[in-house]
Amino acid sequence: MKIRQKFWIGITIPLALLVTGCGQKQDLNNSLAASPAPILSPTPLPTSTPVIVSPEPTPVSVATPTPEQARTKIEKTYHMNKNYDIVPNDPDGNKKIVLLTVDDGPKDEDMIKSLIATLDKHEAKAIFFMNGYRIKQKPELLTLIYESGQILGNHAWDHNDLKKASKDTVDQQIGDVQATVKEITGEVPQFFRPPYGSGNDYVKEVVKKHDMLYMTWSNGSLDWEMTNKKNDPNKVIENVLNQLHSGSNILMHELPWTAEAMDKLLTTLEDKGYSFVDPRAIELTMR
Known about the structure:
With 287 residues, the protein is of the alpha/beta class. It has helices at residues 2-20, 28-33, 67-71, 109-121, 132-137, 139-147, 167-185, 201-209, 233-242, 256-271; strands spanning 78-80, 86-88, 97-105, 126-130, 151-154, 191-192, 213-214, 219-220, 248-253, 275-276.
């Protein structure tokens, strides 16, 4: 019996080598372990054995700079005055501009996509002032805004009144947002707006330490006074137009009625001869 088994193994091994030599590499140990000898059949063999390489784990929320962000260098042709208006550095420069800002996100993907689509339609940039706790909840929305080419702003970690906060709390509220945004995008915000527009000298000192421009606003849409049950996109537009002036620093929020109003608002501003300043063209020092 042992002699017969050796005989079959002696035949099987050369045949297996002949077949596998034309196609893929097989495990000889498996062939040797088979007993009795397998019946060879003309089964199609792949031309090569795929090599499976396990990729290094990559953090899901980390954004890759877009080509636009990687190459665009914007000249600083505007600055902000003490009224938080945007003013051209050249006295003969275009004064009929407005700055668009959107606060209190990131919250909702569909709403953000709507805002970005409208801004892109009008070739406009806006500062999205975001809270740290919201970024932590939905880091992918920060990535969405960043990769769209829109501008990131720091709106403190929580939406608390920093004027009433301790110095340690102010440090944390501002610094933690900078660190979190850098971890996700590789960059830090250059603009800061305090929640409720409420700050003090120490808040401004910390903002300056982080190389950011401190701002509130000079044109409030009052969209925050509306609710899900009682709102009117046309009223948002009316509120902005009632306060409209050259250099308006327009405060809006990530709200459904604001997203709905945005296209008509920007169209109306353009019809009135206004253009939208690129925030990257604004100096980071008030004067």
